[in-house]
Amino acid sequence: MRPVALDDARLAALAREHGTPLYVYDAATIRARHAALAGFDVVRYAAKANPNLTLLKLLRNLGASIDVVSAGEIERAFAAGFPAERIVFTADLFDRAALERVGRHGLHVNVGSQAMLAQLADARPGGSVTLRINPGFGDGHHAKVTTGGELSKHGIWHADLAGAIDEARSRGFAVTGLHVHVGSGANFESLCASGELLARSARLVGDTLRTISCGGGLPVRYRPTDLEFDVARYARAWREHARAIEAFTRRPIELEIEPGRWLVAECGVLVAEVRATKRQGEREFVLVDAGFHNLVRPTMYGAYHEIRALAKTGGERPTIVAGPLCESADVFTQGQDGEFAPIPLPPLAPGDFVALHDVGAYGSSMASNYNSQPLAAEVLIDGARSWLVRRRQSFDELLAPEREL
Ligand code: LLP
Q1: Using one digit for the tens of pLDDT, what is the confidence trace for 325-336?
Q2: Cα–Cα distance, 265 to 229 (Å, whole number)
Q3: Separation of CA 12 and ligand 1 centre (Å)
Q4: Residue 320 burial (10 A CB sphere; 0-12, 13-18, 19+)
Q5: For residues 45 and 382, what is the distance between their CA atoms, to the nearest angstrom?
Q6: Which residues are catalytic?
């Protein structure tokens, strides 16, 4: 989906004003995606998708809660104004910095391994916990993002859940939540199947249960041929499970969803400037100033992102779009095995701009300083207005943590 407000002329103007590479996010798209989740009682944004403070604040103002997975994300959640009650820490382990913050702020924890229960009992004794179930199967747009089944490190193995519930109770915790997340970019059927398992597991918890979470993982349409996810139908399927659980707990069960990609992927565009073009044998290359340090998804998963030339048409030919990094994998147009997947583009020259679409999720959040490239700037637009919400990292900042011996 292309944000309507991000037309070519505007993107080019922003690129000229702020330089490239530049991420541009559209607030209206995020609001629309959030509104589509009205069938759920709690929308918990998975901050890892894009933890920019302004986006966090926007989602907080829409009423979203937040899922954090590290000490850094806890710091961000507080900086964006989330109260402690709206923060859940989800992980399969506590590193020391995260455990200290969980204890200090009394944060609710979605526990992914039994070892965490003993550590939590020391750092934040008593209170409630959620248990994350590994349902024994998973799904996702790539094997690397499948989070259920024997090959996944995530969650408490479904057959061990009864033992984990006993351990939680014996350590003084009330189990108030059950959670499942089968993977990222999963299909409708797998996402629903995890609901059946969770509903059965709820019987093991009994009447302390208050919340069930179906996790995130909702797919978005990276290609025009991808199907639209029927989110209203999905909410109805899970609501049925919540009702079935209410029938035996005799208390209201809150239905929670925890998406990252669904909320922010489509709001974002990465604008890059063409700096060179070349022909290698029969292959046409366009080299731009953004690389896998800005968007690693094609290199890491063979993920497809639509790429367009801004304000240029005609004479299209199969083109490979690559970045500036000294590594052959720095190509945006590649398939799952790293094979080139050229896309039709008009003839381009240095100084032209290209836009890479649907980069709002797992774009800047997975960025790196590889090749000592500074982290890129981020702009938010809302209607006719725009703001720089993260300035480009300076070279002084890049070098600051180091010292020469
Ligand atoms: N909840 C839990 C427990 C998760 O592990 C994740 C994602 C989410 C929610 C949010 O998933 P989403 O709704 O965004 O699919 N870097 C990969 C995605 C990795 C997701 C990891 N966990 C990518 O670029 O596709």
Answers
A1: 999 999 999 998
A2: 14
A3: 31
A4: buried
A5: 20
A6: 326
